[in-house]
Design goal:
disordered N terminus; 21 strands; Extracellular solute-binding protein; 485 residues; 3 domains; disordered C terminus; alpha+beta
Length: 485
């Protein structure tokens, strides 16, 4: 759906205040007269909340039209990658919002405008952007820069310093590997009542061998599917090591594994009781910025909440690349479409949302992302956020190209994994035997999914007729969590 928003005189008046207080360094402004700009984003409302209103205060002469991506996810679409490309081709937006999975593809296909020349022309400062971000985007662009991301989502090792001191365990440090994290977790006691005992490590969702192995593999850059060859590779020494680490950790009883998948609905108090790290009963977890907000809300909401000293360390890391991280995502990579007729207005938009002025304003509100422009997201609730900036994002993207995998594949693949890992747990199969079976049977499922996807692409009418089949597609739908007071 195409939606147009024209800002009123009141917004123009507000813009005067912002312009007066704006900082230098945004470079030469090329937009002088009324112009239009078509921007692709998730939705119109969200766009204006995040970017549009602030940009319009600075540039009321630019009329913005938002191309919503919501249509991609409606109806009978199963090939979201192609649906996204079709929407771009149909709407011809000036600004595209991409992510880790498709930025490189659009850049290599010649669909994006190169930004290096514009940066040099306007002397646009990039030195204070999150180290490694520019290098990563350039590498994905074949050596040239085609996009910028105003924010990113990263992880850190959160730890309860009080528990470490109580049990005489050395505090976590920057650059810990998964092996070190699991070894540290096993140093905490495993006895005690289920409702009061302490755990060495855990997450806010239910842990399993499969999802723990996936987390470790992601950090270490392992991929079980090569999206270029569409081949599954799991029966290797590296993958055996990953699964052995996950199995040993869960068998140690030091890892929190909530029954019935964890919290499934209830009161606010019941929700927080299910969050063991928040409640001071878990020594370590992998956290994101929103976890800090969660802890603050618990302290303010619960009458008898017992605070603890929270620490953060950069990690986890791949032991082969201790200064980098793959656990960073750029969900909003903005780029200018090649041959855009509104390139000047598009570049002004790019400069603004990736600049100091925008970062200063948005850093005041906490969400799950931090500003790529450094020096603004400094602390939250007394906690230094520098930890999230210490590791450089790895140019080796574990998710690159994975958008090519048909979505139907995953729902049919996971039951194979669960079945084989259950056999390993029951000690009726070795890890090597289980991985060999998963690899072989998974390849059959992948081949069929790819073949079916090609058939649907060549026969869209037939796909539409058969689109109402639900239970047999193998798709997994996620439930919603309801919290009531």
């Amino acid at each position: 759906m195409r939606m147009k928003f024209v800002h009123k005189a009141a917004l123009f008046a507000m813009s005067c205040l912002l312009v007066v207080g704006c900082s230098a360094g945004s470079g030469k402004e090329t937009v002088k007269e009324t112009s239009s700009l078509k921007v692709m984003f998730y939705s119109e409302d969200w766009f204006y909340q995040q970017y549009g209103d602030l940009f319009a205060m600075k540039h009321p002469e630019v009329e913005i039209e938002v191309v919503s991506q919501q249509s991609i996810y409606n109806g009978q679409n199963t090939d979201y990658v192609q649906a996204f490309k079709d929407l771009v081709e149909k709407e011809q937006p000036d600004i595209l919002m991409l992510d880790n999975s498709n930025y490189g593809t659009f850049a290599s296909d010649g669909k994006l405008m190169e930004l290096d020349t514009l940066i040099a022309r306007d002397k646009y400062p990039t030195e204070t952007i999150y180290p490694g971000l520019m290098d990563l985007l350039k590498e994905e662009g074949g050596g040239k820069l085609y996009g910028l991301s105003p924010s990113f989502s990263g992880t850190a090792i959160f730890y309860n310093a009080d528990l470490f001191n109580k049990y005489g365990v050395e505090l976590p440090h920057d650059g810990m590997t998964w092996q070190e994290i699991m070894d540290t977790a096993r140093r905490f006691p495993t006895d005690g009542d289920e409702k009061t005992r302490v755990y060495g490590y855990g997450m806010e969702w239910s842990m399993s061998v499969s999802n723990m192995a996936d987390s470790i593999a992601s950090t270490e850059g392992l991929r079980y599917i090569n999206p270029d060859t569409m081949k599954i590779t799991l029966n290797t020494d590296s993958w055996k090591k990953v699964y052995q680490l996950a199995i040993d950790a869960l068998d140690s009883s030091a890892i929190y594994v909530p029954k019935d998948g964890g919290f499934g609905g209830g009161t606010m108090e019941e929700y927080y009781e299910s969050q063991l790290f928040v409640m001071g009963r878990m020594a370590m977890t992998i956290g994101r910025p929103y976890n800090l907000q969660n802890i603050k809300q618990a302290r303010e909401s619960l009458k008898d909440y017992k605070s603890f000293e929270l620490g953060m360390a950069a990690g986890p890391v791949n032991p082969a690349e201790p200064d980098t991280t793959r656990d960073v995502s750029f969900n909003s990579i903005f780029a200018i479409r090649a041959n855009s007729p509104n390139a000047d207005a598009a570049w002004e938009f790019m400069k603004f949302i990736n600049g100091d002025e925008y970062a200063k304003i948005k850093s005041r509100s906490m969400n799950n992302e931090l500003m790529s422009r450094m020096g603004y997201s400094k602390e939250y609730d007394g906690h230094n956020l520098e930890t999230f900036y210490k590791l450089k994002p790895s140019a080796s993207n574990s998710y690159s190209g994975m958008e090519k995998i048909p979505s139907e594949f995953y729902g049919q693949y996971q039951p194979i994994v669960d079945r084989e890992l259950a056999l390993v747990k029951d000690k009726t199969k070795s890890i090597s035997e289980a991985l060999a079976t998963i690899e072989a049977e998974g390849q059959v499922v992948l081949d069929k999914a790819v073949k079916d996807a090609e058939a649907k692409k060549n026969n869209p009418a037939e796909d539409k007729d058969s689109g109402e089949v639900g239970a047999d597609t193998g798709e997994v739908s996620s439930g919603t969590v309801t919290i009531t007071n």
